[in-house]
Structure formats: structure tokens, C-alpha cells
Write a structure and sequence with these properties.
This protein has one domain. Helix content is 76%, strand content 0%. It is globular, with a radius of gyration of 18 Å. InterPro entries: EmrE-like (IPR037185). This is Integral membrane protein. Keywords: Membrane, Transmembrane, Transmembrane helix.
Length: 274
């Protein structure tokens, strides 16, 4: 389980650095009205985006490995804490100054993750029925359609809505990765849960990039953090039987709350190129 925790932390580092690179690319790319799937094509011509995408893929592989033995509420809190990584990287590499409150938030995130790590019980990939797998795929498709509709909104409403939908899509990726138990190529190709991972991943990337182009960075990132942590954690506990070590549930709750609140305090680093 120690290796899984280290893998989740490494994934968070990958995602944190990727955020810097992808945000720079999103600001450089020509914007369009609404949510335009061709945005990903335009971003693919930029080296920072491709480097960030490579880090995202590396992070996903590490996240997938962590989800084999760790509860969703632990892994998603660790992944969301990539903003702490982004904040530290931005302060050292890009010269951005962190306030005392933000440095305190980094410390709170670390404390929260330490509590989560110490309270988590070992899990294994969960066997679920076909209905659950098809529901995941339908959810991924629904989030894409809702995102296309939300692109017509303006201002903070657009940023929060797209951020929330992107966060939910990231959550579907995590849940799908957790329930894909058979990794044989033929099984993966015929598993609706595996297809939900691919569709939700592309949806999350498109909606998040679109929101960063014109919306409030802080509002977008805060919405993503809440959606990608709370929803998967609830599904893991209620439907996938995620648990803590005996008697340590209060410790896990405290760690989860501290990690999420600390991450929300660092929401402006969702797009550090500003």
C-alpha cells in the first residue's frame, strides 16, 4: 500500500506540472464561441500542450495503479492536491509569490494527505455488473452533451459550470479505472467502463481547457476540485465498499476535508501562467 500511495503522489506531481504547461497552451490557442472540440486539435500543435499531455498520461497510469489498492477518496484527494505541486513549482520556476496563507494551505494539504494515507485500508478492484459499467459510459456521454450546452453561458456561470462538469468527468475516469478488473486487451476493448474512461478523459480535457480560455481561473479550478473529489469519494464509499482501517474513519474524514480545503485555497494556481 505504501507503493500505491507513492504512486498517487507521483501522479499528483505529473498532473501539477502538466497544469502549468496546458494552461500556457490554452491561453495561446485561438478561442471560439462555446465549447469547440477542434480546440484539442489546435492545442495539439503546441509543444507545451503535448508535453503536458505526456505528463497527464504518465499520471493516469500511476493513478490507475494506485486505484488497484487504495480507496477512491484517498486517490482523488491526492490527485486534487496537485495544485499544491503547481503552486510550489510556479513559485520556484515562474517567480510567482505565495502569500503566507497559501504556504499555510500547502502545509494543510500535506497534513490532510498524511492523515488520509495513515487511515486508508487496502482495497482491490471492485467487481460490478454490466448495468454499472453502461451507466458510467452513459454518464460520460451526458457530461459531454451538457458541456457543449454550457459553453453558451457567459462569465462566472460558464466557468463554474464547465469546471464542475470537467471535475465530474475526471471523477468518471477514476471510477472507471477502479472497476476495470480485467486488463487483457480484448476485455478492455469490450468493456463499457474502459470506454467511459476514454470518453470522460477527453471530455474533461476539452471542458477544462475551454473554461481556462475565457473564464475565471479560481472559479473554474475550485469547481473542478470539488467535483472530482466529492463525487468519486461518495461513489466509492456507497457503491464500491471503500473503507478505512478499523476505528480510523474520523481521521480519514478530517484528512479529506483538510486536503480539499487546502487545495481550494490554492485554486488560483489552476492557471499559473497569469
Amino acid at each position: 500500500m505504501i507503493l500505491s500511495l507513492l504512486g498517487a503522489l507521483a501522479a499528483s506531481v505529473c498532473f501539477g506540472v502538466a497544469t502549468v504547461l496546458q494552461a500556457i497552451a490554452a491561453r495561446r490557442a485561438p478561442s471560439a464561441e462555446g465549447v469547440d472540440p477542434r480546440l484539442l486539435v489546435r492545442l495539439a500543435s503546441q509543444l507545451p500542450f503535448l508535453a503536458g499531455l505526456a505528463l497527464d498520461l504518465s499520471g493516469f497510469v500511476l493513478e490507475l495503479a494506485a486505484l488497484r489498492t487504495l480507496p477512491l477518496f484517498v486517490v482523488q484527494a491526492v490527485i486534487a492536491a496537485n495544485l499544491a505541486v503547481t503552486a510550489v513549482v510556479a513559485s520556484k520556476v515562474m517567480g510567482l509569490r505565495l502569500s503566507r496563507v497559501e504556504w499555510g494551505a500547502v502545509a494543510v494539504v500535506c497534513l490532510g494527505l498524511a492523515l488520509l494515507g495513515s487511515s486508508a485500508d487496502k482495497e482491490s478492484p471492485e467487481e460490478v455488473g454490466a448495468a454499472f459499467r453502461w451507466t458510467l459510459l452513459a454518464s460520460a456521454a451526458s457530461l459531454l452533451l451538457l458541456g457543449l450546452a454550457a459553453g453558451r453561458l457567459t462569465g462566472t456561470a460558464r466557468a463554474v459550470t464547465l469546471g464542475t462538469l470537467a471535475g465530474l468527468a475526471f471523477g468518471v475516469v477514476a471510477i472507471g479505472a477502479r472497476v476495470v478488473t480485467d486488463l487483457a486487451p480484448l476485455s478492455v476493448l469490450t468493456d463499457p467502463a474502459a470506454w467511459s474512461v476514454a470518453l470522460a478523459g477527453l471530455t474533461a480535457l476539452l471542458l477544462y481547457s475551454t473554461a481556462l480560455q475565457k473564464g475565471s481561473v479560481t472559479a473554474t479550478t475550485a469547481a473542478v476540485v470539488v467535483a472530482e473529489t466529492v463525487m468519486p469519494a461518495a461513489v466509492g464509499i456507497l457503491l464500491l465498499h471503500d473503507t478505512t482501517r478499523p476505528g480510523l474513519a474520523p481521521l480519514a474524514i478530517a484528512g479529506f476535508v483538510l486536503a480539499v480545503l487546502g487545495t481550494l485555497t490554492l485554486a488560483r494556481f489552476g492557471e499559473p501562467s497569469t
